[in-house]
Amino acid sequence: MSTAIIDINWARLELLPALPYSISSTSPHTSLGLAFARQTGVHAIGCDIRHDFDAWPGDFAISNAGLTMFSESAHGGEYLLMHISNPDLLADMHASSPRQIFHGDKQVVMLAWQLRSLLLQKDKDSLLLQEKAGLFLQRGLALSSTPATAGSLYAQDKPLHGHVLDYIEDQLDATLNLEELATMANMPLLRFLRSFAHATGTTPHAYITERRLQRARLLIRDSNLSIADIAADCGFAHQSHMGSAFKSRLGLSPQQYRKLSV
Question: Do you know which InterPro entries this protein is assigned to (predicted)?
């Protein structure tokens, strides 16, 4: 599936697919971006020195206009990007640096999911799209003016959650157990639930569903497997279970999504 792009009165929205990429650019506009999936690669932000990066699901970036960026990943990851074309909307932004990263903000993750669903629709609801985009920007403005403490409170847990995310990725087609994940993170169950939400902006169940949907979408796009086989390969209990998840998260059935991907 190619990049989904739509212009609204004051911004451009892009839904970047999970594909390998290499980009080098300087945007004339302030941008807001959210990662839907974990991805690793190399980048250079505002300089020529390249560093390895490990972007987590739920990472939310605000980048100032004029910031030079290079980024490269061998596998990429689905990403929502918003370029603000009307600088008057940024009067309340108080950025402490040219690029700010916020981790695990539940509100911004939910809004990004809603925007993705709207961008994937064939007949887009322009008014609702602008409304959700406005709320996404509003949340970005609020985060930019407050210390980035929510995710950092659990920064010491990140390596533990990294093992959990890797395990989930390897076992997406299997039955996953919450207590097993908590044990893997070496945490009591309730602390694990709080910590995971702060790290990713969502619950373990919602995250696992998201990853299964992302894998299913790749198989729908890149294979001729039946919808039933894809559901089984991605860990859904049955075809209708996957269909319900598609409709709930993306606003489309798997069959409708397959038509979009042609």
Answer: AraC_XylS_family_regulators (IPR050204), Homeodomain-like_sf (IPR009057), HTH_AraC (IPR018060)
**Where is the domain boundary, 124, 144, 164?**
144
Q: Which CATH number do you get for residue 48?
A: 2.60.120.280
| Domains in the chain, number | 2
The side-by-side arrangement of strands in the sheet containing 21-26 is 21-26, 68-73, 39-45, 51-55
Task: State the pTM of this model.
Answer: 0.92
Give the residue from 43, 48, 46 showing the smallest Cα distance to 65.
46
- Find tokens 């709320």 and name the residue: 135
pLDDT digits 0-9 by tens, 204-239: 999 999 999 999 999 999 999 999 999 999 999 999
Smallest CA-to-CA distance from 148 within 96, 98, 93 is with 96
* Triad 193, 199, 203: Cα angle to 5°: 40
* Same structural domain, 49 and 166: no
Non-local (6+) Cβ contacts of 121 within 8 A are 251, 252
